[in-house]
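To: structure desk
From: M.T.
Subject: fold request, one chain
Message: Could you run this one when you get a chance? Sequence is below, nothing fancy, just the single chain.
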Amino acid sequence: MSVFGALNRFISRLDSDSAAQRSKVSHGAFGFQVLRNKNHEIPIEPWYDFVIGINGRQIDDPDPNLFATEVRNCSGSTVTLTLWNAKGQRLRDMHIPVPTPSPTLGITLQWTPLATTDDVWHVLDVIGDSPADNAGLLPYGDYIIGTPEGIVHGESGLGELVEDYLSRPLRLYVYNHEYAVTRLVTITPSRSWGGNGALGCVLGFGALHRLPVPLTEPPAAPGETLFETARLSGDIARPLASSPSNPPPSSYSPIQSSDLLVPASIAVPPPFPTSPAPQRHGRKARHAVSPNRAFDEYFKEGEQKSKEEDFAPPAKAAPPPPPTKLGVATHLPVPPLSAGEPRQTKSPDPELDDEEEIQHEEVSG
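Reply: Done. Structure tokens follow.
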């Protein structure tokens, strides 16, 4: 829990540092919080709803007389209120008719910063037979949003309030996310109930434990954009699949092979043949080769060409004729000589020539 609490405190510090950014998203850091709604025909929730705009203009003046004057000017017609709701931190516009006899809306407002709704404690776990269990707190679904005993601010605000009400009844406003109801719970903190803590429950605080969107709202439909990021210059949105009803944009063109960078020191191998190559004179026709053998054939051709340029003798040249035996001459065809090779008049081995002369003298004598 210490690591989890440290993470929440770190995120809360980041939220406090980016108050200006949150104000831009919420159209202002302050607004008129709805404390009471006497007109049941207007779907406005006390405590959760903030009026931050009227008739398309943002409210930046805390003077309530200006707001009342704007409402009276819409007598006999409708007034448009821009509301910010703490449940999911969402905005909505509401068109409310203003009666002629008494041009009022029947709501009680108070100029309050929107950040007051961040002081929410999420009930994560409840221990049995604890003060929280006896008070009826429910894990995961309950959120402690405040108390009629005073203003609670910051992560340690609830703990300080509990210490002041040890062994005394303490009233808390609790919102349940599953049933979308707010109830008043009376709990008696105690240190002698037999467990840890004065309440006997695990609470979460911070950005990870804000009030969620009500379950009654419809979920996002398939294909809707949840997050929108900035596109790079030249980035073109492409469809998931090309079809006759959804053709690709005409401005998109595939990358050609000539547009790719090829290093100058690397020779580009010939493309893989898709059909049998045409026959050449003096060489057998090649058959289509597999991609795995394309580079082998390419390097073999280079090796053969290098040998021809270096005037290397063929590897399968005919061997020289054998020497004659017992003076019997053998007439064998003389193999052709390569260019620049001198003709031999004697056997390459001088010992064989001496033996041949001795045998010839014996026979003639």
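Reply (cont.): The longest strand covers residues 30-37. Let me know if you need anything else for the meeting.
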